[in-house]
Design a protein that fits this description.
31 strands, Alpha-Beta Plaits, 9-stranded mixed sheet, 4 domains, DHBP synthase, Nucleotidyltransferase, domain 5
Length: 833
Amino acid sequence: MTTASVWDHAETPSARVPGRAGTTASRAAGRGGGLRIEVHGVVQGVGFRPFVYRTAVACGLRGDVRNAGGHVTIQVFGPDGAVAAFLDRLVLDAPGQARIDRVETVPLDGRAPDTAFRVVASTGATGGDRDLPPDLDTCPACLRELFDPADRRHRYPFINCTDCGPRATIVTDLPYDRARTTMAGFPMCDDCAAEYHDPADRRFHAEPIACPACGPRLAWWTGAAGHGTGEAGHGTGEAALSAAIATIEGGGLVAVKGIGGYQLVCDATSAAAVARVRAAKHRPAKPLAVMVPDLAAAERLVRLDAAERALLYDVARPIVLARSRAGTVRATWRAPGTAPAASPAPGGGATAGRADGPALAAGVTGGLSEVGIFLPYSPLHHLLLAALARPLVVTSGNRAGEPIATEPATARRVLAPLVDGVLDHDRPIHSRYDDSVVRVVAGTRRVLRRARGYAPETLPLPVSAPEPVLAVGAQLKQTTTLAIGDRAVVGPHTGDLENAETLAAFEETVARLARLRAARPRVVAHDPHPGYLSTQYAVAHFPADRRVAVQHHHAHVAAVAAEHGLPEPFVGIAYDGLGLGADGTFWGGEVLLAGYTGYRRVGRFARAPMPGGAAAIRRPARMALGYLFGVEDLGAGRPDPALAAALLARLDGPEVAVLRRMVERRLNCPLASSAGRLFDAVASLLGVADDSGYEGEAAIRLEAAAEPYPEASPLRWRLVERDGLRVYDPAPTIADALERALGEPAGLVAARFHSTVVEVTVALAEAAAGAGRPNRTVCLGGGVFQNRRLAAATVAALDAAGFAAHLGGRIPVNDGGISYGQAVVAAARLGGR
């Protein structure tokens, strides 16, 4: 071997072949040798070896291709022109789901083999890039076979090929071969083996290949709610599917084993069935996702723009949050224990439904004007929807606060007592993957929950990690990231780390990420909050000199900057519920001058007490009282409680008296400079929501209340200087809101509040840009920016003011993006910046 060439993915294909690559190939062929090629990126599990085989044969080359570790190794022998053409097509014609990061070539000495080009056995080399593709939705070719009575896989719920099917959920190790997947226990029949070894077949080396004769099989278990024990089987295969269809059609509730875990499925038009789902999950108010068979069915329920339509058909098949159409929700609904909505939400009228399709049960959306809607992504989903011909609630198979079930034993213990039956199957799920959730903001996809279809795709690091870094995320919406070299792999959404079950799921994810990447983490990045279970894990498993604490809001904005590849420094604006600040108080309305290794706090929201601590998060009415009686005095005085007579009249008198004493005496009233808590307080003050049944509910309802008013002038606001920081004083805003609410619809006042926060944010950014080196780059992070109205208006206002505003897209702006931000910061610090 002599000279090696490396093509970086940033080079254009035309530059790759005639330039360095062409020279290398010519030099190798000129000596009568060949070329060894390594292709790095997402090149396993996407049909890359079959593609290489067909391309090499078409070019008249000899040699072989194999999976090696996490990349693909190719040896080619042939004329100079044929090798050059092969190299060009290797990049230009790669499979659609492949991602080529770089190609390395080394000349080979020796004679070309006498045999034709072959796909040969994989090698288990470790180290280097080990990228794994996400699960892929069912391709059109497999769908045609699924519903073709003449096909041998007709109605087979595990049909797949090299272009579709499970990947991340079944892989146990790399390189990606059947023996290293949960399909290892299903020997191929002669027919499948023939397809698997036939280069002309689209199932050539499709590792999950299966058919009714040799593959996984459905099984039906009667649940305890269906007067069974959850232990006795009542049919397999088509009989099991028929039993599930009949149960759902009759208004029942079924647990279905999906791609990445069990799901609860019922008729989305049945109020009784939807109520059962809510009771089973202990989920009284949070909206439920709805699966429909196709775009036409989706358009009957929601209003979609071009970006949302494209997302529905994206290979990831995410849940897309879209605005409901008027009349598609059967009746008005409000969450138990909340005040009536102060203004109607569009699409929430009390109608009998649309003439061109069934209306969703009122309880599906939780009284909101959006529907989380998605299309089927597995053959089993397609079969269910084709038979039932109605929208279905398809939601994670778990109780609130627990991870999605993946094991049959867990399904029978936890889910069987709650459902009428379990539609099971015997293909094991190796890795837990819930469904991804996205929202379009300002015409761009924004991932809110990064799971099936997106994870475990790798993301870039602005500074390479000199040694493997494990980032363990936060407490809520937890994800885990493993940083190796200049790439970071973000694991799937785990959930909220609040109990032993989610902690165990988190630890499983950590172990599997390390194994798949063949890397042993040497450093852990974590949140400084000592109460987080993720922080406690870091402390328990790594010595002090191997731990890097990354402030919560710095992680938020660093994640956005890194995703967009931005230079430092930048202005970081982080609005969320809570995060432990460097001064020991809770932060959540923060303006930072930041880089990848550190930050300087230059602005914030005013502090307000949280009466009862965490209890104030669950009950926004407490936060309203905290702002009324104890918001930080910045010179404008506090709002007059008399203006909040409507709130005080709704609340129990003794409760108000006790909370007021707590605030005045600062008893169990931690202070927070939180934008999220301010949204909660305003929601309660306007009568939109006094309680939150799930995280962010009050703020979500405030956004929904504002929707009928697309244009609204802002309320009063002011910025002041306090201890060297520019501070937003919300007291005038709250007072103005309460005064206007006496004569204006609460929805209009809610819209004015959103406009106010936008103006405040631009003013804070201007102050921050002048606080150091002039900087017009702004990164917006934190869960408050999940708010479509706020995020879109803020980006537009910042751009109009001459800033370059950036918002997370591939990485959630909520706490699901914290682990990536932690990895970015830790890698930069270790890298010496």
